[in-house]
Design brief:
The structure is a single chain. The chain has helices at residues 18-31, 34-40, 58-71, 136-144, and strands at 9-11, 14-16, 41-48, 54-56, 76-85, 88-98, 110-122, 125-133. The chain has 145 residues and is an alpha+beta fold. The strands form two sheets. A six-stranded mixed sheet has the order 4-3-8-7-6-5. A two-stranded antiparallel ribbon has the order 1-2. Strand 7 and strand 8 (125-133) form a beta hairpin. The longest helix has 14 residues, at 18-31. The radius of gyration is 16 Å and the shape is globular.
Length: 145
Amino acid sequence: METKTMDAKTTNSVTVLPEAVAQSFLRAINRHDVDALLALMSAEHCFIDGLGNRMEGLEKLRNAWTGYFSMVPDYAVAIDETLRDGPVVVMLGKAQGTFTRDGKLQPENRWETPVALRAFVEEGKVSEWRVYADNEPIRTVIANG
């Protein structure tokens, strides 16, 4: 007998756990797959960056992710630890990439920083993606690049 919980989505007898959704979202980020990201976002999805800036609206988010991946074409996040409490998934690790204005990746424009990511998952979709990271490493590269 299958047990349904408030923090897991059950579809056709398959239970989708919040951490699986959050990990799929992160894999889409690491692939720079904006369409996959949008497919995993709820209609009310909210992105909150490390400075507390909020962005909502799927078309705005499409443009923001596309622009970011253009600015940091090798952006990737490596996760060391994942924690879950109901619909909330927290992933701890490191974000890294190389800033570029012209598409060329120069070693001096590479940065990395510790990161904590918080996903709030409802009905198999990410309704909030919050980034906790020190933005100073990329800001320094942008200022010098």
